[in-house]
Amino acid sequence: MAAQVRAACPPSALTGHAQHLAAAARRPEAAPSAGSAWRRQRRRQRRPVACPSSSLSGSSSSSSSSTAASPEASALLDQFWLARGVVDEQQRRQLVAAAGAIRAELDAEAFESSQQQLGLQLPSLSAAWFLEEQRGSSPQVAAASRRILALQQLLGGGDVDVVWMLVREPRLLSTDFRSIAQRLFDMRVAEGSDGLDIIALVEQQPALLLQADTAVSSDEEETAAERLQAWQHGLVSDNSTEWARRFGQLQQYVQAHGDAHVGCRDGDNAELARWASKQRSEHKAGQLAEGKQTQLAAAGFEFDGERAEWLRWFNEIRAFKERHGHCQPQPLAHPNDFLLINWCSVQRIMRRCGVMPEERIAALDELGFDWTGADPLS
Description:
Layout: H1 2-5, H2 11-16, H3 18-25, H4 37-45, H5 71-83, H6 89-98, H7 108-115, H8 139-154, H9 162-168, H10 177-189, H11 198-204, H12 224-232, H13 240-257, H14 270-284, H15 290-298, H16 305-324, H17 338-352, H18 358-367
Pfam families: HA
Keywords: ATP-binding, Helicase, Hydrolase, Nucleotide-binding
Protein name: DEAD DEAH box helicase
């Protein structure tokens, strides 16, 4: 029976019943926490955005003719451009207008059109600067706007903070909506998901909608509690197979960088970084299996996230000394080491304030760190 429930949902059903799926995925009981207080306040303050009631692949009707964008759609797009860093209100109005006449209903034709934009990237922040030359229109901006509105409808409407999801995971703008709907379906029918607000969960962890290469595990592979814990860290699964795969990626990371401090460098694999965060969380709670703990420790994995961040930069200043023969990067002499210069300044400030652990002072002393160097941050 469980195997039948998990059977792949046909594409036609995914597009034809996307809104029904989103509604079914939202349950009022036992919803995950909404996050920090400022996020809850932000959700209360933002203007609700009404979504069309038609399904993504509903039949075309007389209302499918082009009409002006609704106030709700305009408000959503304005929020999106503000989140993208367009602070000038006039420029945002131009960008919203450049979306063109957005259908009041996202019918089958509009949905299929959005599906053809799978390679779409977020328009650049300078997009508004070129609108006058394009006589107020921009196919790229219009395509992105339609995708944003379609994504919001797919996820069930104005209660979902689509803008914040896109800020964290821009790839949602170019992901096949059918794969997103399939992921929601798989999560909804997974064992133990009754009572969970799946939509609220993916709003907190939008990366769950992007891991098409990872299947939702069965109860034989992972208990419902273990699966939920993985979801709360933005991982579709962390069963034994997935854990071994991620550990292999960690070993490759060590070979490439010389340490296991994944998540502490720009450009690190985001999924691997979330996996590392989950291992630290389980270790802190005493829930990490002894065998896994032994493997991670042997690979040089640091279970304290804050210490891992510090060691990442300590390794950087050590490598700097190997290249230059000293531990004093300077803005004019080493302009590409701006972040390392700031880190060195923070170390001096922490020691001067008496809040630096003695072991870190000793490690830097042994390296020959210059405690009297320039301090641009003070």
